[in-house]
């Protein structure tokens, strides 16, 4: 038996395993010390009540002969696609339901979308960034070029004319840096893609964390993006769906004369059988006024945590990025990031994520997250101030 050579090119993904191992070793040695994790990359608040009610009601429907449902449409039920189109209409973006594909979350489609493009293409990926883009492209046998996100560009790299890529990944708000593109910078990427014929894959998984009304929450707020961009989004961080699993991908019918939309529909019909009916009903509940209010309460809770951490770092005069419009804070640690991990754990019993785990451009930086409770975050902020 032979596996694809591409899998050999993957580097071992040891980041969170190594974090867990170091924390376990520390707590074994110091069982009396209270370790606080600001390394959590997952939501911690439970599902909003209206979402749970929608799940219950849909489960009841599935248990009745008259309302039972088997296979659904691969691209999602119309009720959810219409609700997503309505969500975009609220942002001033008009989409047809045929352009919206319901998914089991952003991660799957961010990699699966590569199925419809040629192998061996060149893909531009920001560095540092969510590691799944690079690995999915290695598996697909593509060539990755890195677009350096640096403190000097506010971790918001702009197009470099020397970089020729078939596909460009953009993540805004960015994981791990928390940086968010403004409309003007995003317009430069769209113009670059239109001029070079590249496709933008825009990851908007954290869009609901953008509370600054001046910042774009979708790539389609930039004119022309409907001719060069696919947008991938998720209910995971918006409404606590990391365990429930639901998201969507927008593939405009204007992209390459509709051929990309048609190819993606074909691909999904071959390899995907849709998201469970009950989950789609739960996702629909998120997009009601009540659901969005509940989601925003959760996000406000996390953003308050981010403010607490940012306040403590600010007080200490430590340079950081993010912390507003994002659940992530990206702090300069002034030493190799794994060394800082050990130092922070040892001196303050705080766990974070070494920047080196998000690409070589993350070295010298450290990610703190807003997903712990207020109480723990407050305690961690006090510890940072006392350091
Ligand atoms: N995109 C980014 C930037 C993420 O950080 C994550 C998860 O942490 C995902 C996508 C995955 O989202 P989902 O749960 O919808 O698969």
What can you see in these coordinates?
With 387 residues, the chain is of the alpha/beta class. It folds into two domains: 5-47 and 291-386, Aspartate Aminotransferase, domain 1, CATH 3.90.1150.10; 51-288, Type I PLP-dependent aspartate aminotransferase-like (Major domain) (Aspartate Aminotransferase, domain 2, 3-Layer(aba) Sandwich), CATH 3.40.640. The chain has 13 helices and 13 strands. The chain has helices at residues 5-8, 15-29, 49-62, 78-89, 106-112, 132-139, 183-196, 236-239, 259-271, 277-286, 289-315, 337-348, 374-386, and strands at 36-37, 100-103, 122-127, 143-148, 167-171, 199-203, 229-234, 247-250, 320-322, 328-332, 350-351, 353-354, 365-369. It is globular. It starts with a helix and ends with a helix. Residues 41, 105-107, 130, 171, 175, 203, 205, 234, 236, 242, 247 line the site of pyridoxal-5'-phosphate (PLP). Residues 41, 105-107, 130, 171, 175, 203, 205, 234, 236, 242, 247 line the site of pyridoxal-5'-phosphate.
């Amino acid at each position: 038996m032979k596996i694809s050579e591409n899998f050999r090119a993957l580097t071992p993904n040891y980041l969170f395993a190594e974090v867990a191992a170091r924390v376990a070793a520390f707590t074994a040695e110091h069982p009396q010390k209270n370790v606080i994790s600001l390394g959590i990359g997952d939501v911690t608040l439970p599902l909003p009540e209206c979402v749970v009610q929608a799940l219950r009601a849909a489960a009841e429907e599935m248990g009745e002969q008259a309302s039972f449902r088997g296979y659904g449409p691969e691209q999602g039920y119309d009720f959810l696609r219409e609700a997503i189109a309505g969500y975009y209409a609220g942002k001033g973006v008009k989409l047809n339901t045929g352009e919206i594909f319901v998914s089991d979350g952003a991660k799957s489609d961010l990699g699966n979308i590569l199925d419809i493009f040629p192998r061996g293409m060149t893909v531009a990926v920001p560095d540092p960034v969510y590691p799944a883009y690079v690995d999915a492209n290695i598996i697909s046998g593509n060539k990755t070029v890195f677009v350096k996100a640096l403190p000097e560009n506010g971790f918001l790299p702009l197009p470099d004319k020397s970089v020729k890529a078939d596909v460009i990944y953009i993540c805004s708000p960015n994981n791990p840096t928390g940086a968010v593109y403004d409309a003007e910078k995003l317009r430069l990427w769209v113009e670059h893609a239109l001029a070079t014929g590249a496709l933008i894959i825009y990851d908007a998984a954290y869009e609901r964390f953008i509370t600054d009304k001046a910042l774009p929450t979708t790539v389609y707020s930039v004119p022309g993006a409907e001719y060069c961009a696919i947008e991938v989004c998720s209910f995971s961080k918006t409404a606590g769906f990391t365990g429930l699993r639901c998201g969507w991908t927008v593939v405009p019918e204007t992209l390459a004369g509709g051929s990309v939309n048609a190819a993606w529909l074909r691909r999904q019909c071959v390899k995907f059988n849709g998201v469970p009916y009950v989950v789609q009903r739960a996702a629909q509940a998120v997009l009601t006024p009540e659901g969005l209010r509940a989601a925003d309460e959760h996000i406000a809770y996390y953003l308050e945590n981010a403010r607490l951490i940012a306040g403590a770092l600010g007080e200490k005069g430590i340079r950081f990025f993010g912390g507003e419009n994002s659940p992530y804070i990206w702090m300069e640690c002034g030493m190799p990031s794994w060394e800082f991990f050990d130092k922070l754990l040892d001196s303050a019993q705080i766990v974070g994520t070494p920047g080196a785990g998000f690409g070589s451009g993350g070295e010298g930086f450290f990610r703190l997250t807003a997903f712990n409770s207020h109480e723990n975050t407050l305690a961690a902020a006090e510890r940072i101030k006392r350091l």
